[in-house]
């Protein structure tokens, strides 16, 4: 598997040609103004400290307020209690503060923030407010598009609190971290556009890492994926997340994503 991931990464970097639609990271570009996006995110990861798999479902709704501002709300459902239980929710906003455009390229920068609450038990050192921890995250993201080449990078600060009402954050663990991501993609099909109804097939690779600020522990993951854009409105993502390195306790670092999304454009003027 590791050899495959290295080859996959090399292949992407040599000829990147992609849209700004990544699977586990968000680019600096926003959804179109007045549009409504509905996504059903699913993941199944192999447990490290016990037998079985961790399954999460995350319904999301995204709203484009204007060209520079978007908001999103997410819900967390998992089988950690051996049945599907709603554990919390998240509220996210992103503001695009820099935009430069050329004939065949553009550059975007945006600031983002997220607050989540969660009532599940705290079972790992990794801080992850998308589905595991109560807390907040704030950061910046930059995305460069040249012709059909897309590269995106982000850095953020993440802080965890108690998972109320029953689970206090462990005093022996670091409750804040620095996150960093780097994403590449490539458009595989079509070779030439004739209309917006053509199905797009994108391959991409994303690197996702974290360092605990108080303990110095860190991890780095690679996420290769394939993505289908249908009729410029529907989207299907299939991805595999693999741990490249980790010095911290993580309950389920390796597994698969399946995201289903549909966008309604011009819902409001």
Going by helix content, strand content and strand pairing, the class is: mainly beta
**Separation of termini?**
48 Å
Beta-strand content bin: over 45%
Question: How much helix, percentage-wise, in residues?
Answer: under 10%
| N-to-C order of helices and strands | HEEEEEEEEEEEE
Order of adjacent strands in the largest pleated sheet: 1-2-3-4-5-6-7-8-9-10-11-12
Count of DSSP-assigned helices = 1
Q: Which stretches of 5+ consecutive residues score pLDDT under 50?
A: 3-18
The count of β-strands is 12
Q: What coarse outline follows from CA principal-axis ratios?
A: globular
Main sheet characteristics = 12 strands, antiparallel, barrel
Nearest-integer average pLDDT: 90
Rg: 18 Å
Characterise this structure:
Keywords: Signal. Residues 1-18 form the signal peptide. This is DUF3078 domain containing protein. By secondary structure, the protein is mainly beta. 5% of the residues lie in helices and 56% in strands. The protein contains one helix and twelve strands. The chain has a twelve-stranded antiparallel barrel with strand order 1-2-3-4-5-6-7-8-9-10-11-12. Strand 4 (85-101) and strand 5 (105-118) form a beta hairpin. The longest helix has 13 residues, at 2-14. Residues 3-18 have low confidence and may be disordered.
């Amino acid at each position: 598997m590791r050899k495959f991931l290295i080859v996959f990464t090399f292949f992407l970097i040599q000829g990147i040609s992609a849209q700004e639609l990544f699977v586990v990271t968000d680019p600096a570009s926003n959804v179109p103004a007045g549009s409504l996006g509905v996504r059903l995110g699913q993941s199944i990861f192999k447990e490290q400290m016990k037998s079985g798999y961790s399954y999460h479902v995350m319904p999301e709704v995204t709203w484009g307020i204007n060209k520079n501002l978007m908001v999103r709300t997410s819900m967390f459902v998992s089988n950690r209690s051996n049945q599907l239980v709603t554990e919390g929710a998240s509220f996210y906003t992103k503001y695009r503060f820099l935009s430069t455009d050329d004939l065949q390229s553009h550059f975007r920068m945006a600031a983002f923030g997220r607050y989540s609450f969660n009532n599940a038990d705290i079972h790992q050192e990794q801080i992850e407010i998308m589905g595991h921890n109560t807390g907040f995250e704030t950061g910046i993201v930059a995305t460069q598009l040249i012709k059909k080449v897309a590269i995106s990078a982000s850095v953020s600060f993440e802080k965890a609190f108690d998972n109320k009402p029953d689970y206090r954050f462990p005093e022996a663990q670091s409750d804040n971290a620095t996150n960093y991501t780097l994403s590449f993609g490539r458009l595989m099909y079509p070779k030439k556009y004739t209309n917006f109804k053509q199905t797009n097939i994108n391959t991409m690779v994303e690197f996702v890492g974290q360092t605990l600020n108080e303990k110095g522990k860190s991890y780095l993951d690679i996420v290769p994926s394939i993505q289908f854009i249908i009729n410029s409105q529907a989207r299907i993502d299939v991805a595999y997340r693999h741990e490249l390195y980790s010095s911290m306790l993580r309950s389920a670092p390796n597994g698969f994503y399946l995201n289903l999304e549909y966008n309604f454009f011009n819902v409001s003027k």
